[in-house]
Hints:
Helices cover 27% and strands 34% of the residues. By secondary structure, it is of the alpha/beta class. The chain starts with 9 loop residues before the first helix and ends in a 7-residue tail after the last strand.
Amino acid sequence: MAYNEFAYFYDEFNGEADYxxxxxxxxAKLEAHGIHDGIVADLGxxxxxxxxxxxxxxxxxxxxxxxxxxLCVVRDKAEQxxxxxxxxxxxxxxxxxxxxxxxxxxxxxxxxxxxxxDLDTAIANAGFFMEKGGVFLFDMxxxxxxxxxxxxxxxxxxEEDASCVWRNHYNAADRKVEIxxxxxxxxxxxxxxxxxxEYTYDLDTIRASLEKHGFALETVCDGETFGPLTEESxxxxxxxxxxxxxxxx
Length: 249
C-alpha cells in the first residue's frame, strides 16, 4: 500500500489525529527506557508529523515509507522547519528493510503494520537492526475495528479542493479489510482511484511474533486513550524491548 495521490491531503483527512498525545506517549516511553537521543526509525512514516516531532526532540530520525509521494511531503515539511539536515528519508518496503547500521528504537503508528501481509517478516526486520535493550513502539488496528467499525462501511471526506470516498469490505475468510479510495478534485475534475488491504492480526499472533524475534512485550494498551484495553478498543499500542541481538539469538 503506497497511498500515492492520497499523500498530498492525508493530513487534512487525518485532521482528528491527536499527534501531541501520540508524541507524548512515545517520547515518555523512550525516556523511560533511557533513550534520550540516538538513531530512531519511523517505520511507515507517512507525511512525517511524528517523525519531525521526534527530530525536534533531538533524535536522529530515519523516516521510512514505500510511497515517494509521502516522502515528498515530509521533505517539504522538514525544509520549512529547517530540519532537512537532521533527517534521513528512505523509500523502502518494510518487508525488505535494509538499514546502514543499528538503531536504538523503532516507532510505527497509524496501523502501518496492518497493511503488511507478512507481519512476522516485518517484525523480524525491525528486530534485526535494533540494539539490545532497544524499544519498539507501534500501534495496530484491532480485530474489533476491522469487523465492527470498518466492516462494510463507507466514509466520505470533504475538503475545499477535493473530496474522498473511502469504502471498506471485511473479508472474514481471509481476515482482511479490502479498501478502495476514490479522490475527486473539484477544480480540475481529476479522479484518482487506489486499492489496498488491511490485514487482521489478533493479540496472540502479534505477541508470538515479537517473542520469536527477540522482543519481550512489556505493555499493550488502548492506542487511542493509552488506558487499559477494552473489548471495544479500536487500536492496540505496544511497547516491546529487544532482549538480544540477532547474533546472540
